[in-house]
Amino acid sequence: MKIPQIRLDSTMAQIGIQTNNAVNNIQQPMANLSIEQPKASIQMKTTPSKLTIDQSEARADMDLKSIARRTEEFAQNGKKVWLEGLARRAQQGEALMKIENPGNPIASQAKLNSEKPMKEFGLAFIPSPGSVKINYKPSKLEIDIKQNKPTIDVGVNKPIFDYKKGNVDIYLQRRNELNIDVEMINIKA
Predict the structure, then answer these.
(1) pLDDT tens across 38-90, in order?
(2) Composition of the chain by helix, strand, coil, percent to 5
(3) I want to staple 65 with a disulfide (CB 3.0 to 4.6 A). Which of 55, 69, 77, 104 is the partner?
(4) For the chain, which residues make up each domain, given as ranges?
(5) Up-side HSE of residue 116: CA atoms within 13 Å toward CB?
(6) Cα–Cα distance between 38 and 154 in angstroms, integer?
(7) InterPro entries from the xrefs (predicted)?
């Protein structure tokens, strides 16, 4: 016995997609930069240092005195000795005026006027400590600095954009199909 058999063969439709990506190109040119730094101005002023050494006292301790100093010392010593002698004579004259008082003023004054004074002995360092006087005045340094600010000039350049659109193409790559086939099949009963 023959039975018809239907065979369906279908092919699905296929869609094709083709994409072209967008292209975005950005360029940023370097900025124009100019920097100028003027030199700083510096002014320096110095006063010289001064060193003074006074050794006149040390020289005087070694008996190396100037004529002016010797003359002044002789004058002062002469005035002192004269005042001492004047005081001694006034005292002795007063004692002789009052001879009636107890004591023997003539004998005591004769003894005092005939004796030489006792010499004193002592050690002395020549020159004496601190006799050399040193004075130092340091120098002064004045510094005046004037700084100059930098001159900066900046030129900004805008970015360059280049943009190409992308697109998507959709198309039918394969059509859909339906094939119908009828075939007679023998079946044994």
Answers:
(1) 999 999 999 999 999 998 888 888 888 888 888 999 999 999 999 998 998 89
(2) 25, 40, 35
(3) 69
(4) 1-36+150-189
(5) 3
(6) 17
(7) DUF6470 (IPR045527)
Residue 12 token pair = 């699905």
Tokens of 129: 């400590």
Residue 136: the pLDDT is: 94
d(CA 51, CA 134): 7
Q: Which two tokens stand for residue 82?
A: 């004269």
How far CA 148 is from CA of 45, 138, 154, in Å, comes to: 20, 32, 19
**Closest C-alpha to 156, from 17, 22, 34, 9:** 34
Q: Is the pTM of this model over 0.70?
A: no
Dihedral, 118, 122, 127, 131 alpha carbons, nearest 10: -80
Query: Average pLDDT for consecutive 10-residue bins of the chain (189 residues)?
Result: 84 91 92 92 92 88 85 93 90 85 83 80 75 91 92 92 91 89 81
